[in-house]
Design a protein that fits this description.
Layout (H helix, E strand, L loop, with lengths): L2 E5 L8 H10 L7 E6 L5 H14 L2 E6 H12 L5 H15 L1
Parallel strand pairs: 1-2, 2-3
Amino acid sequence: MVLVEFKNYDSEEVGKDEVNQTRNYLTRPLGRLALIVSTKEPNHAAHLKRNTVYSEDGKVILFLNVEHLEEMLYMKERGEDPADLIMDAVERFYIEWE
């Protein structure tokens, strides 16, 4: 399964607390992959915490925004698989983490 959390904050940005919340939801039945979708970009602390979560627990948390969702819709219209965007994001995460 893939856990998806939507954070539609008006003024707040996604931070380490939101990453921790998502981390806690990732239990064995839910799996080790989560998406945090937000209208705001995650701050630096969120990125650091996400890397720590992967280092400590092997859980991957990806950050997506509205533009990513729009691209996934366009991919579907073109007959492509929108899951490819997520797989590309996972690969980028692994490359950047190293």
